[in-house]
Every structure is written in structure tokens, then in C-alpha cells.
Amino acid sequence: MSKTHEPDRVSTRGIDHLAFVTDDLPGTMDFYTRVVGMRLVHVRRVPYERDRGQPPYDNLRHYFFDMGNDSLLAFFEYPKGLARSNRDLPGGMQHVAFHVPMDRFDAVVERVRSHGVNVIGPVSLGGRFWSAYFFDPNGIRLEFATSRTKTPVGVVDSVRQTEEEARAELETLFDDPRLVDEWLAKMPLLDTPVETT
Q1: CATH H superfamily, domain 14-80
Q2: Whole-model pTM?
């Protein structure tokens, strides 16, 4: 039996869509459909609205891909010649990880590799976590992630920890043991570690 604590939970179901920027929409369309295997499901233009936090260009193309599990990956097409963002600075998006069921993981990695894309991995990130990394044509770092557990579990359950595992990490962040205990009390902890294959 696992320890559970149910604080006020967020009422979202997950990702509706992630929105990125490209200056090569045809190349992006080709990569995500042919190489990664997503479907293009919606194409439109977006008028500029000053007070909505929208991109600062009028009538931008905004194209959506089905990334599975009823979630979308979207791209705005910006003008060519703009500076690239830096994923390794605060506020940047470091990478996007797509969950792949364990029984499909090797095939999905091989699909991308078969298109001449440099794939790093699969690599073990310790315990049950396995990942493979590559870049899209826009320089966005992508990851295929899976959990090699004996019994299949969902994405959230795959990252749950024992109190010992979580405490060891939180003690590297907080010097005050009371803060460590406060955070542990908010986490849905496991009684025993998850078995891996």
C-alpha cells in the first residue's frame, strides 16, 4: 500500500497544447509527420491581438500536430532571420519529453534514427527511467521517455518515490529539516521502491 496525501489538486487533465516557434514551417511539418510520426490536424492564421500576450506578428500561421493521448504540439511560423533562443537559460524550455510505452520505445527510437537523425541513447537515467534524445530542425531538444517497470504504470505513478529517495534529494536543497518534512508530507510517497525489468 502506498502513502497518499491529497492536497488541493489541480483540475487540469494534462497538456492541451505546447506552442513553439519555427522559421521553417514546411521543414517542421515534414519532421514531425514523416520522422516522428505525428499527424498534422489543424492549420490556421492567428490575427495579432496586442493585449493577449500573443506573438508580436500579425496573421501568423499556427499549425497543430497530434502528439497522442489527446494532446497537441503547435508551431507559430515567425519571420526568418530572428535570433535563436537559448534553452539553457532560465525561462527557456530546456526540452520536451514525449512518453512512449515501454513495449514501443525501441521501435520509436529506431524510426527516428532510420531517417538519419542523430539520436543519443537509449540511456538509463537510473532505476526505471530510460530516455533517448534528439533535436528537431528548429534546434528544439526532444526526448522519448519510458519507464521500465515490471508492472506498467502511468507517467505520474512512474515517478513516485519512497520517502527515503525523496528525502535524500530534498536534503540537498533545504538545510532546514522542517522544510524537508513539509515537502515530504505533500508528496504521494511509496512504501517500497518500484521493481524494474
Answers
A1: 2,3-Dihydroxybiphenyl 1,2-Dioxygenase, domain 1 (3.10.180.10)
A2: 0.84
